[in-house]
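User: Quick sanity check before I run a bigger batch. Here is a single chain. Can you write out its predicted 3D structure?
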Amino acid sequence: ARPAGARLGRLAMTPDEYCRERAASSGSSFYYSFAFLSAQRRRAITALYAFCREVDDVVDDSTDDGLARVRLDWWREEVERLYARRPQHPVTRALAPHLSDYAIERARLLEIVDGMQMDLEQNRYLDFEGLRLYCHRVAGVVGMLAANIFGARRESTSRYAEELGVALQLTNIIRDVGEDARRDRIYLPIEDLQRFGVAAHEILAIRPSERFVELMRFQATRARECHARALSLLEADERRAQRPGLMMAAIYFTLLDEIERDGFRVLTHRTSLTPVRKMWIAWRTWIFGAPALAQAR
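Assistant: Done. Predicted structure follows.
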C-alpha cells in the first residue's frame, strides 16, 4: 500500500497535476514524447495516459480477480459519468475538457477497459489473431486516440496509429516475458510455442534454450513488420504532427535492438534504456524525424 502521506498529497492535487504525477512516476517511454507538445495537447495526452495507467493498475495490483472486475466495472461507469459531464476521478476530470477537441470517443475508452479485463479472463493465447485483439484493445486503441490528440487529419493516420500501437505492445511482450511468466502469464501464442518446440512449462520455469531464442527472434521480426506497416501508412504531410508517436517508436525499437543484441535473455534479465538515452532518442526523432524504414528489417 502507498504511504498515507502520499495518498493525501495526491488528494490535494489538481486533476492535471495528478495526471502529470502518474505519468512521470511510471518511467514509461511515452512520457518522453509529451514534453515536446503544446501545453493543451500535453495536458490531453497526459490525462489519456493516466487513464490507461489507472485501469491497468486495477489488474496488475489486484490479488483478487473478483474485486478487480468490480473495479473495472466502476471505471466503465466512470466513463459514462464522464460523457454525462459528471466525472468523479481526477483522471476523468482532467480528460473532460478535451473530449470534443480531440475526438476522444466513449467507445474507445470502454474498449481499453475491455482489454484490461482480458487479463482477468485468460493468461494464454492460442494464436496471433487472439493476441492481436488484446494488443488492439490495450495499445492500438490508445494509439488511435493519441494520434487524434497529436493532430491527425487523415483516416490512414488512424490505421497507422493502431498498427503502431500493436507493434509497441508486441515489443512490451518480448521485454516482459520473464516478468509475465512469474505471474503465470504467457502472451506468446501457443501456435508459436509449438512451431519452435518450446513448452509452456519451460517458460514458466524460466528455462532458456536455443529454441526459445529462435522463438523470440520470430516475435521480434513480427513486431518490426508491424512497425514497418505502420510507417507505410503514415502520409508525408502527417509525419510532423505525429512525431510524438514516432518518438515512442524510436525508443521502443532501440530497446528491441538492445534485447536482440543481448541474446534475448528476457527470461532472466529485463533490458531497459536509461532516461538520458530515452530523452536523446526522443529529441533526435523530434528534430530529424523517424528512423528509416530499413530499421524494421
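Residues 210-233 form the longest helix (24 residues).

User: Great, the batch can go ahead then.
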